[in-house]
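Students often ask why we bother encoding 3D structure as a string. The short answer is that it lets us treat folding as translation between two languages. Here is a chain of 348 residues written in the first language.
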Amino acid sequence: MSEAQAAIAQPTISDFARTFRRIQAEIHKAIIGHEEAVEELLGAMFAGGHVLIEGVPGTGKTTLVKTLGLALNLSFGRIQFTVDLMPADITGTRVILSGADGHREFSFQPGPIFCHILLGDEINRATPKTQSALLEAMAELQVTVGANTYPLAPPYFVMATLNPIEMEGTYPLPEAQLDRFLFKVRLAYPGEEELVRIITATTGPEASGIEPVFAAGEAAAKIENLKRLVREVLVAPQIEQYAARMVRATQPHNSRALGELHNRIRIDAVDRYVSFGSSPRGALALIMGAKVRAMLDGRANVAYDDIDRLAHAALEHRIMLNYAAHSDNVDAAQIVEQVVKAIRATRA
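And here it is in the second language, the structure alphabet:
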């Protein structure tokens, strides 16, 4: 085995952190601000999940996915979801082609879903039938068209965006579909200082060039090896219990039970405002995201603080609020904040 092959086959924690920060640096050549959002996006990718992005138009969502593809030296695609978009427009379809001899046969023409990094822009503008076309690709890394199944080349990373304004004529994602995204990331409006930097960077004579972090042909293998390394990070039993307790605390009936078990825990807001709490996927998102956080800090084990830092990204979109919450102007972020504060008090 050559040195290059050995480096690909056996990355270390320091290799992971160095590669992660290099990708971040390249992205921030084109993306001003959004440091936490970019870190969460990359964390989700290396954790093997997908990301739901909420942000108004003009906050850099399309630029972000394009820059990520250039930095990783991987193929990227973009789908603009509209109400008239059909599943075949995403997955591809079979067409009849004529050969030189006049013989006709069906041939599959791949859709834009066949890439490494995919941006699904304004996914809530498509019908549920079209939205669901992404589910098989996200979960199974394959696409089924007719009787045939076509594999997608790893790594495969989906970033779907939601536009929080102009909600007329949109189709909110079902709870089960929201649950399939590892994290939900918010892209807020830039501050005045950041906006000045954006103006300077985008209206000058030449934009900064993005340099690929990986050589051509090596990106997919290196990223997959780094993803496998993330799974090797150790998680102590008490940390697993801590993550499970946090997820259970988002569920109304379990919140009351936790309050009886630990006198310091009283999450009245959960019982009052939450219809359904996080599914078990929320606990998996907490643990996998925390493993990435640990490696960025040079640790081979997960700490309590890693779980706390990922709580909002992992749990907010998995909490379904009731009418009382909307009436009292309470959102999922406030619920998660109270849950984290209460569960933190139970640390051993």
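Translate back mentally: The longest helix spans residues 280-296. Keep this in mind for the problem set.
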